[in-house]
Amino acid sequence: MLNPPPKLMPVITRFNDFRYFLIDGGRSSAKSHTVARFLLYLAEKKRIRIVCGREIQNSIEESVYTILKDLVLKYNLNFEIQKTEIIHRVSGSAIRFRGFREQGVINIKGIEGVDILWVDEAQAITKQTLDVIIPTIRKEKAKVFWTMNRLVTDDPVYVAFFSRPDCLSIHIDYHENPHCPQAMIEEARICKEKSEADYRHIWLGEPLSDDDIPILITNEMIDNLKGVFHDHQFTKKIISCDPSQGGDACVVMVFENTRVVEKRTLHLNDTMKIVGELLITAQKHGISDFAIDAIGIGAGICDRLQEMGKNVIRIVSSDRATDPERWANLRAEMWAYLQTQIQAREIEHFEDPELKKQLTAVRFEPKAINSKGFLKLEPKEKTKERLGRSPDDADAYVYGIWGLRDVDYFRGEASGVYPHERKKAVYSGAAGW
């Protein structure tokens, strides 16, 4: 049953020499299958506890449960396959599955006394999770397997273990796997013809550079808005504001439906002065609805505007998303919503090169992506580093497009404060709003 690729034989022959095993490489290189077969073999020989973990596991199907189950059935092994674990009928070895991060909290319950921890898709493990896992594996002869297709050069697991003397590190690709199906070899060839960069990452396991990490909103998406004009029967108006934090600019945008009719950049960090400027702008355009970043001094701005009878949608980017299995937080949900609106051409074209540059600078957090399309954005600090400045224009734009959902056509006011008391938006067939 073992029969691993020759390059992976040291995992078996030198198993007793190392505490950690780091196996990285591209697709169809037999990394996961080799470890799965070896662990089943070990579980037959003596009673051991194995935990198969990953950063996020929303269901058992997202784990390596299926690989292990298929091997048990294929070779008629003496394991009992249960809904959440696999138990050897003779040795009593138990293989269990868990996600380390549940609802934003790191959960290491059940891994303290394991004999073997196998973390597949280890490229998704964050440094924060890694710093909790490692001290938890306390057994003297415990082993930890990391299998991964490295996403970025500074991957926490790779950086922490690649050069450790107690870690066996092996890189293997599909062409070094004699068991690689011909169909996969053909897929690799096609991928290489289409994109050398994709081929080197997907099939050769090379990490992505910052420039290769996919962005949420592309220049092509924005350019595709050219010629879009919506003839609205009614008008929604809202003012969005990203108050200045730590010396950043305070950007104010005035929206009429999806069109920005005025943009102001205030170099202020005084709450009452910003409120005054917002009220002047609101009076000019006849607007009583605001979408404002409520973090930091933004909270005071929101409070004062509400005291004056204005309708305020408070934006707290770190808030829980409406569907946490799809978005990491409200920030990711808002940006995903903007993406869908741009792709559907529900937003009118804009001629603002700075806004375009900032919108296209925001990128995914590749480690967070899973089979359900879970979306997490990179930390804002990384976007700021890439741009050389904070993406204040982009943030204000996202707040405005998001806030328009809660503005009623007929009353011209917000229907509530996110995420509570929201009314369903009124849509026109032509505009989609």
Bulk shape: elongated
Strand order of the largest sheet: 3-4-5-2-8-9-1-10
CATH superfamily of the largest domain: P-loop containing nucleotide triphosphate hydrolases
What structural class do helix, strand and pairing data support? alpha/beta
Query: How much β-strand is present in the residues?
Result: 15-25%
Low-confidence stretches: 410-433
The total of beta strands comes to 15
Order of helices and strands: HEHEHEEEEEEHEHEHHHEEEHEHEHHHH
CATH fold assignment of the largest domain: Rossmann fold
Q: Radius of gyration over alpha carbons?
A: 26 Å
DSSP helix fraction: 25-40%
What does this structure look like?
By secondary structure, this protein is an alpha/beta fold. It folds into 2 domains: 205 residues, P-loop containing nucleotide triphosphate hydrolases (Rossmann fold), CATH 3.40.50.300; 188 residues, Nucleotidyltransferase, domain 5. 32% of the residues lie in helices and 18% in strands. An 8-stranded mixed β-sheet has the order 3-4-5-2-8-9-1-10. Strands 13-12-11-14-15 form a 5-stranded mixed β-sheet, with helices on both faces. A two-stranded antiparallel sheet has the order 6-7. Strand 8, helix 4 and strand 9 form a beta-alpha-beta unit. Helix 12 packs across helix 14. The chain is elongated.
